[in-house]
TrEMBL record:
This is FdhF/YdeP family oxidoreductase. It comes from the Bacteria. Residues 618-718 form the Molybdopterin dinucleotide-binding domain. Residues 107-461 form the Molybdopterin oxidoreductase domain. Keywords: Iron, Iron-sulfur, Metal-binding. The keyword Transmembrane does not apply. It holds the Pfam family Molybdopterin. It comes from Asticcacaulis currens. InterPro entries: Asp_de-COase-like_dom_sf, MoPterin_dinucl-bd_dom, Mopterin_OxRdtase, Mopterin_OxRdtse_a_bac, Prok_molybdopt-oxidoreductase. NCBIfam families: Fdhalpha-like. The keyword Ribonucleoprotein does not apply.
Length: 725
């Protein structure tokens, strides 16, 4: 009997249109339209949409620029408040809910408090909450505290948070980039002298080649797919390098394109390599090797604008093709073919995600991506350069305005001079060092603004123990997540409800992955008892630091905050009057349309690194589904891959070698933990690879970090998979 050929899975398409319609109907078409068309930056990824050109217009003026992530983000904000009767349940009851269920309980509409030893939260009023928070931090030595922000908060809130922490007496100021793209910042700084993208959005319309390595933008940055399609439409090439053959990167049906929808989708990748997990450095060395062996390097650019090329050439020559093939699982011919496509490109952009940074050698990976770009002179001119694909909508801005443990000396000096203050000089704890200190019982109070730090951590058992040993935790959030109900049995927790971006009482600003600063109007009122993060932080500062030379009452005005930032942070001078001029802008000195590098010599550096030790056996990478953003689970089913949250994906030959069949119940084990309740599924993966969803698979991952970026290795964990008896 002949079986019909399975219909190929395509990203986007009707399923996303129907999802959007269903979501919009559930939350109300008027509410949806108001939220999506208001002049506020999108709350999802940092690709950039919204601001003063309108909610569904990007910085290049393209309309409509809206994607499923935008609608998903709005769907949680446009919820009614959680009823008090729900809050009255015990922590053990709430822990029975998964992340999806907690997120969809509704918006937190009033402050809630859990006393030490109590088994539940109770509603409290704002004065009690703020007085209690100030008392707990006042009773804590500053070095035994830490302050954390996600990337969804505004520049204004982030600046006040880090200023509050430093005036309080600590540089233990962290943000979520230490768990995602910190390796990018370190790697780019060591090679080209700047830690962010070198291209603007318009460059994606000028290039004829884009390499996407270690990322799945079809799920995580859907509007980037429009840019990839644009390259193909112009006759250019899109190459994807990823251990998994992601359906949305092969073919994608663009919802706003009728032809794309009717035809069953557009072809995205013109070539696709699937290397073994953890072999990224060997892959990139192979690409450089092929470029050099073909004489395709840009000798003039290298001579005029770089240094260290001789050492790189020697390193590449000493790396044998046999070793590259053995490590990557790719053939020399595969790599040479892709290198040939790259070598013929006139203007190339290289983009990457956390598949590159989530390794113990993540910085090395980024440095060699920069090497690959430099060796062909594909940087320092329009239409060419480097593009880290960042997640949260303002994660780059949060770092720019100082939410990090170490500030540049110039910024520290300007802050002290502008505000008339003296700031601590002790080196602050990064995110993992802060969690490790908590795990040792050395953190007594923590302020966590947004995000889900509990589930952002690797090694779930470690994270829960660390949270449990923090005596007092203050959360600022719009909705509940598992970090609010795990790790609090014997400690105090206070959760304060905050406005969403489009509900802010005053305009706020955000920075895209293209170094572009947007102005968000705010102004929508949904819940009467929620407050802006800046309002809460300034009220806490007034109580905690009554003798501070900084007037935190004045800092409740966002214009005052922006004026201070403009005087303190180089490149943000245009922020001072953005609310008056309504003129959004690129941060000065970042876009590299001329080969003027920010290094001491003014030249870019070729950097040489050794290949990492080889890991044998099966290697696990954790990934996001189409139905989630970071740790937020909007849908339990991944419509692109056809998987559920506890599905573990493997290569068919690897499964057969273990005696496993598609759909078998399995146990996945690492030296750090055990994942039960999973089933194994066949997926188009490189041999030796296992793929499972984050954060469910965090129980398997380790707290070991890249020594230079302090980013955990979520992407190459040795595991064993066995059939569940």
């Amino acid at each position: 009997m002949n079986r019909p050929t399975p219909k190929p899975v395509v990203g986007g398409g009707a399923k996303k249109v129907l999802y959007a319609l269903k979501t919009a109907t559930r939350i109300g078409l008027d509410n949806t339209a108001k939220a999506l068309t208001a002049k506020n930056a999108c709350k999802a990824c940092a690709l950039g949409m919204g601001g003063q050109k309108g909610g569904m217009t990007n910085e290049a003026g393209e309309f409509p620029s809206v994607c499923n992530k935008s609608i998903q983000a709005q769907s949680t904000d446009i919820q009614p408040g959680i009823p008090p009767e729900v809050i009255d349940h015990s922590l053990s009851d709430l822990r029975e809910l998964d992340g999806h269920e907690l997120e969809h309980l509704g918006r937190l509409a009033f402050p809630i408090y859990k006393a030490a030893g109590s088994d539940r939260y109770v509603p409290v009023d704002w004065d009690f909450a703020l007085d209690l928070a100030a008392q707990r931090f006042a009773a804590t030595k500053p070095e035994r505290s830490f302050f954390y922000s996600s990337g969804r908060s505004s520049n204004e809130a982030g600046f006040v948070l880090q200023l509050l922490a430093r005036l309080y007496g600590t540089n233990n100021v962290n943000n979520c980039s230490y768990y995602c793209h910190q390796a990018t910042g370190v790697g780019l700084d060591s090679t080209i002298g700047t830690g962010t993208a070198t291209v603007e959005m318009e460059d994606l319309d000028r290039c004829d080649f884009i390499l996407v390595i270690g990322a799945n933008p079809s799920s995580n940055h859907p509007r980037f797919i429009h840019k990839l399609k644009g390259v193909r439409d112009r006759g250019g090439e899109v190459v994807v390098i990823n251990p998994a053959k992601e359906p949305g990167l092969v073919r994608f049906a663009l919802p706003k394109n009728v032809k794309s929808m009717v035809s069953g989708g557009d072809w995205i990748a013109s070539d696709y390599l699937q290397p073994r997990i953890g072999s990224d450095l060997a892959v990139v060395k192979g690409l450089i090797k092929a470029v050099l062996e073909n004489g395709a390097q840009d000798d003039d650019f290298i001579a005029d604008h770089t240094e260290g090329f001789a050492a790189l050439r020697a390193d590449i020559a000493a790396t044998a093709w046999a070793e590259i093939e053995a490590r990557t699982g790719l053939t020399q011919a595969d790599i040479e073919r892709v290198a040939g496509i790259y070598s013929r490109a006139k203007s190339a952009v290289i983009a990457w995600g956390m598949g590159i940074t989530h390794h113990l050698n993540g910085v090395d990976n980024v440095e060699y991506i920069a090497n690959l770009c430099l060796v062909r002179g594909q940087i320092g001119r329009p239409g060419a350069g480097l593009l880290p694909l960042r997640g949260h909508s303002n994660v780059q801005g949060i770092g720019t305005i100082g939410v990090k443990p170490v500030l540049a000396a110039e910024v520290m000096a300007r802050m002290e001079e502008t505000l008339g203050v003296a700031l601590p000089r002790e080196k602050g704890l990064d995110t993992m060092r802060g969690m490790e200190a908590a795990h040792r019982g050395e953190i007594d109070a923590a302020l966590i603004m947004g995000g889900n730090l509990y589930e952002a951590n690797p090694n779930s058992a470690f994270a829960e123990a660390a949270f449990a040993r923090i005596g007092f935790k203050l959360f600022l959030t719009t909705t509940l997540n598992r970090g609010h109900v795990h790790g609090h049995d014997d400690s105090e927790a206070l959760i304060l409800p905050v406005t969403a971006r489009d509900e802010e009482w005053q305009p706020t600003t955000q920075e895209s992955m293209f170094n572009f600063v947007r102005l968000s109007d705010g102004g929508i009122c949904r819940l009467k008892s929620v407050r802006p993060e800046t309002e809460i932080l300034c009220e806490l500062a007034r109580r905690l630091l009554p003798d501070s030379p900084v007037d935190f009452e004045a800092f409740k005005q966002h214009r005052t905050i922006r004026e201070a930032i403009a005087r303190i942070v180089p490149g943000l001078e245009d922020l001072a009057d953005i609310d008056i001029a309504k003129r959004e802008f690129h941060i000065r000195g970042r876009i590299l349309h001329a080969p003027e590098f920010k290094t001491k010599s003014g030249r870019a550096h070729f950097v040489v690194r050794d290949l990492p030790p080889v890991k044998g056996g099966l290697l696990l990478t954790t990934v996001r589904s189409e139905g989630q953003f970071n740790s937020i689970i909007y849908e339990r089913t991944d419509s692109y891959r056809g998987m559920d949250r506890l599905d573990v994906m493997m290569n068919a030959e690897d499964m057969a070698g273990l005696g496993l069949r598609d759909g078998d119940a399995v146990v996945v084990e690492s030296e750090h933990g055990l994942m039960n309740g999973a089933r194994v599924r066949v997926f188009d993966l490189a041999r030796g690879s296992v793929m499972a969803y984050y954060p469910e698979a965090n129980v398997l991952t380790a707290t070991a970090v890249d020594p230079r970026s302090r980013t955990p290795s979520f992407k190459a964990t040795p595991v064993q998979v066995r059939k569940n008896a």
